Amino acid sequence: MSYNMMEDVERILISEAELAQRVKELGAQITADYTGKEILMIGILRGAVLFMSDLMRAISLPVSLDFMAVSSYGVSTTSSGVVRIMKDLDENAENKHVLIVEDIIDSGLTLNYLVDNLKSRRPASVKICTLLSKPDRRKAEVQIAYNGFTIPDYFVVGYGLDFAEKYRNFPFIGVLKPSVYQSAKQSAKI
Ligand SMILES: O=P(O)(O)OC[C@H]1O[C@H](OP(=O)(O)OP(=O)(O)O)[C@H](O)[C@@H]1O
Ligand SMILES: Nc1nc2[nH]cnc2c(=O)[nH]1
Ligand SMILES: [Mg+2]
Known about the structure:
Elements: E1 9-14, H1 16-33, E2 39-45, H2 49-57, E3 63-70, E4 85-87, E5 97-105, H3 109-119, E6 125-133, E7 146-150, E8 156-157, E9 173-176, H4 178-189
Parallel strand pairs: 2-3, 2-5, 5-6, 6-7
Antiparallel strand pairs: 1-9, 3-4, 8-9
Helix pairs in contact: 1-2
Catalytic activity: GMP + diphosphate = guanine + 5-phospho-alpha-D-ribose 1-diphosphate; IMP + diphosphate = hypoxanthine + 5-phospho-alpha-D-ribose 1-diphosphate
Cofactor: Mg(2+)
Protein name: Hypoxanthine phosphoribosyltransferase
C-alpha cells in the first residue's frame, strides 16, 4: 500500500530544512549558554522525541537523557487542564542542570505543572526548550528559555506531533485539513 503524506495536510507550515536550521541554532545557543556544564535533558513523551533526538546532536557538551510522560489530550485537541505523571524520571535530578524538552507549548498547563514539580527535586537549574509555542492559547504562565518557532493558533502535526497518534513521523510541521478533524470527530461520536 502506498502512503501519501500530503493527503491529510492542508499545507506545510515549517519545512524540513527550516526545522534543521533552527535546531542547529538552538543547539549552538544552548552549547554557548551551558559551557563547562553537563545537561540533563528531560524529554516529555511522546511528542518531544523527534525534536530531542535532533537537538542533542546539535549540542557539543556532555548530555544525558531522561523522560517523563504525563496525562495527554487523548484524541481531543484541547487540554483538560489535569496533569498526571504516567512515567517519572529514572534518574535523580538533584544538582543537575535540567533542560526540559518539549515539542509544543499550548495552554502551558503541562509545563507549568512540570517545572514546579521538577524544581521541588532540587536541581542546579531548570530551563525549558520548546520547538513550538502558541502564545495565543496560554492559560498558565511558562518561562521559555529556548523557543524554536512562535506559531498562530493552528492545530499542527508532524515532527513528533500527532493527531490521534497519527502523523508523528512527518519530517515537517503541517496544518491538518479541516476534513480530517471532522471525520475524526464524527467517528468518535459513534
Ligand atoms: O501546553 P499544553 O496545553 O499543556 O499542551 C502541550 C502538551 O500537549 C501535547 O502532548 P500530549 O499530551 O498531546 O501527548 P503526546 O506528547 O504524547 O502527543 C504536547 O506534546 C505537549 O506535551
Ligand atoms: N499535535 C498537536 N498537539 C498539540 N497539543 C497542543 N497543541 C497541539 C497542536 O497544535 N498539535
Ligand atoms: Mg507532549
